[in-house]
Design goal:
The complex is a heterodimer of chains A (425) and B (66). Chain A is α+β, with helices and mostly antiparallel strands and 425 residues long. Helices cover 48% and strands 11% of the residues of chain A. With 66 residues, chain B is of the alpha+beta class. Chain B is 27% helix and 21% strand. In chain B, strand 2 and strand 3 form a beta hairpin. Classes of the chains: A alpha+beta (425), B alpha+beta (66).
């Protein structure tokens, strides 16, 4: 049946094939259905770089939250985290909450926190030990960024393991639903009970940690409610932990399996981990899609999207757009058509190059962009130095899993086994 | 006391943090560079915002002069 080969059945987005390798479908979207009406999931999908960046930058027509006639918002994660910043859409309240904490994750504040990041990396590497093999996801990446963010918040270091457990339950609840959801909510409630006396103490005696800063922040003389503070903490643990954690696993996966030749270069020049981070964020970022809601009718590529439509911005697809990147399906540390180094929310760069969209763009551009890069690069450099001659363990073993999209929409390996020569003294 | 914001356009990398986060104080100007909308900051809230903007500017191009 001629022509039908390019038709897309929306159920393909739920298939195991798509979760393992979404890129062929992304290409069909870009080439044949740049504005795809997915009736099955009741949404639209944008996939070309040009359209995704335009939507990210257009606050007037595309909002992060869907406002209800009778209430402020109707979207997503509050059933797990509690009321949180992501649900305030494009509002001034969102902007204010964001400004309360944004300064912590960049510039001088971030630099001041680097020694703490180094300490946590060193402790975790010590735990990996000298057995000559490591399952990177459970033994390192799952453990690392969550410890960094809880340290930054000022949560007691002695209780870090509990936070790791709560955070993993929260994420599983958000992603997998069902009994995971029940466990996620139970974990959240337990964490909230734990936080109550701590919040009281910090309110009474503020320190210079992030928790105190959040508690003291005021807008028009009003502070955040206790519920909002707790929701914010749950969100920061998840956003600051889960994504960076998976990014590190993706970096190692693509070095070990996709470009072992370039891994040899990186081993010789560890500064190149910075490029690994950037190209990973283009080639196979943790987040492949962001949701927006139209606030009014809007025209994209000649098609009319109605008001209050749900729109999936497929940044995973846009990052592979051949209209922008040469040979987009090749992982290359030395791309001349990608802005290397720190990204920004305007996605405009003085070098005139296109940036990856792995952190999103516009008003909801990832607040932790600088911190995520810093954490990931330090972790990879220290790991690479500590693990002598790291190589994939049993490349054909079924425990070796390539990055795949989980039901929470995050893409990363479930496990990553590495064999190495124990070299440390 | 008069408080002013200065943008070093040589250092600016056009990230847009100031324009997105503090639209009352900053707007896009000529050559894709941000410009300051309020010359003299009198309100405490404006001064707080100006300091937040300087804090998150990724290139350190914003200074608050008082």
């Amino acid at each position: 049946m001629p022509g039908l080969a390019n038709e897309i059945d929306p159920r393909e987005f739920d298939s195991p094939e798509f979760q393992r390798n979404p890129f062929p479908l992304y290409k069909r979207l870009r080439d044949h259905h740049p504005v795809f009406r997915d009736r099955f999931h009741n949404r639209w999908i944008l996939s070309r770089y040009e359209d995704v960046t335009a939507a990210f930058g257009d606050n007037e027509h595309f909002d992060r939250a869907l406002y209800r006639p009778d209430g402020p918002y109707e979207f997503g994660s509050s059933h797990v985290f509690g009321p949180n910043i992501l649900e305030y859409g494009n509002s001034d309240r969102h902007r204010w909450l964001r400004n309360v904490v944004a300064g912590q994750f960049v510039g001088q504040s971030l630099n001041a926190f680097v020694p703490a990041i180094e300490t946590i990396v060193a402790e975790l590497i010590d735990r990996v030990g000298r057995s000559g093999r490591v399952e990177l996801v459970s033994e390192f990446t799952n453990q690392f960024p969550i410890r960094v963010i809880s340290n930054m918040l000022g949560l007691p270091r002695a209780d870090e393991d509990r936070f790791v457990g709560w955070y993993q339950a929260l994420i599983a609840g958000l992603g997998f639903g069902g009994e995971h959801l029940a466990r996620g909510i139970a974990a959240r409630n337990e964490m909230w009970r734990y936080l109550d006396p701590l919040l009281e103490e910090r309110r009474a005696r503020p320190t210079d940690d992030l928790l105190s800063k959040i508690l003291q922040a005021e807008l028009d003389g009003q502070r955040m409610s206790t519920e909002e503070v707790k929701g914010f903490i749950a969100l920061l643990l998840a956003a600051g932990g889960d994504t960076t954690d998976k990014a590190i696993a993706n970096m190692w996966f693509h070095m070990l399996y996709t470009r072992p030749d370039q891994f040899a270069e990186v081993q010789a020049d560890p500064a190149l981990w910075d490029n690994v981070f950037t190209e990973m964020m283009r080639f196979d970022p943790v987040v492949h899609a962001q949701t927006r809601f139209t606030t009014a009718e809007v025209v994209v590529q000649g098609r009319v999207l109605p008001e209050r439509a749900m729109v999936t911005l497929s940044l995973g697809a846009a990052n592979r757009d051949e209209r922008v990147f040469d040979d987009p399906d090749t992982f290359d540390l030395h791309r001349s058509d990608l802005h290397m180094g720190r990204e920004n929310r305007s996605a405009r760069y003085r070098d005139g190059l296109a940036g990856h969209l792995g952190f999103g763009m516009g008003q909801h551009f990832c607040m932790g962009y600088a911190m995520a890069r810093q954490e990931a690069v330090i972790a990879c450099q220290r790991l690479a130095a500590a693990l002598g001659n790291p190589r994939p363990l049993h490349p054909t073993h079924e425990g070796i899993v390539a990055p795949s999209i989980d039901s929470g929409g995050f893409r990363a390996p479930r496990e990553l086994w590495i064999e190495f020569d124990p070299v440390r003294g | 006391m008069i408080v002013r914001i200065a943008i070093d356009t040589e250092r600016c990398v056009m990230a847009g943090e100031c324009v997105y986060n503090h639209p009352r104080l900053f707007a896009w100007g000529e050559g894709d560079l941000p410009r300051v909308r309020i010359a003299d900051l009198h309100a405490d809230a404006d001064r707080l915002e100006a300091r937040q903007a300087a804090e998150v500017c990724p290139s350190g191009a914003i200074t608050v002069i008082d």
